[in-house]
Amino acid sequence: MAFSQEEISLAQPDDASSSKLEAWYMDDSTVDQRLPHRCEPNQPAALSKLAQLGVLYWQLDADAHETDPKLAAIRKVYNYSYMEIISIAADKLPNYEAKIKSFYEEHIHSDDEIRFILDGKGYFDVRDLEDRWIRILCNKGDLIVIPEGIYHRFTLDQDDYIKAMRLFVGLPVWTPINRPVDQHASRAKYIEKYDSRIAGQGAQQPMVAAA
């Protein structure tokens, strides 16, 4: 499939120097997963750091998601052909408590995890290559890609509500693969791609090229 230059330009992830995404290294407390869990003093994690781990990010207009040309370009260029909208709250998600618990189990996926926040907010936690947790605050309008093979988890904040668009390449596979899975093919591929100690070179945020 060929893409226009406009589509390629619109689909580029946000630049780290101007991004408003907020992320930080987590403390070691096990109290209430919905709390921010910032270190004292706070240790921010810039988008440039997340990009080195394979995380992609866009700030979009959630209220215009049905007609937004930027979202349309992202979906086309990255081949996010499947879409569904899910709400996570006690009165909206069946088997809520069990689902929230399972979301917070550390795991990987065999595909990228793509979420566009339409309302509410929540936290995606990702492991860096030194096995430290980085907490990413995702608000309305944030589109985030958690790469295949990275250790991660998700939780709501204390508002206990989020509405998100789930995107996928082809037919969706939502099955988590809980840690430890260091020998899994997706984990091995992730380490080979992003760990400079193994790959021999620093990982860079991928750029979209015309097909």
Description of the molecule:
The chain is of the alpha+beta class and about 210 residues long. Helices cover about 20% and strands about 25% of the residues. The strands form three sheets. The chain has a five-stranded antiparallel sheet. A hairpin with a 5-residue loop joins β6 and β7. The longest helix has 10 residues. About 5% of the residues have low confidence.
Identify the notable features of this structure and list them briefly:
4-stranded antiparallel sheet, 5-stranded antiparallel sheet, 211 residues, 6 helices, alpha+beta
Q: What gross morphology would you assign?
A: globular
| Stretches with pLDDT under 50, minimum 5 residues | 200-207
Helix/strand structural class: alpha+beta
| pLDDT averaged over residues | 93
Strand line-up across the major sheet:
2-8-5-10-3
Q: What is the end-to-end distance? A: 6 Å
How big is the Rg?
Answer: 17 Å
How many distinct beta strands?
11
Helix and strand sequence: HEHEHEHEEEEEEEEHH
Mind describing the biggest β-sheet?
5 strands, antiparallel
Counted by DSSP, the helix tally is: 6
* Percent of residues in β-strands: 25-35%
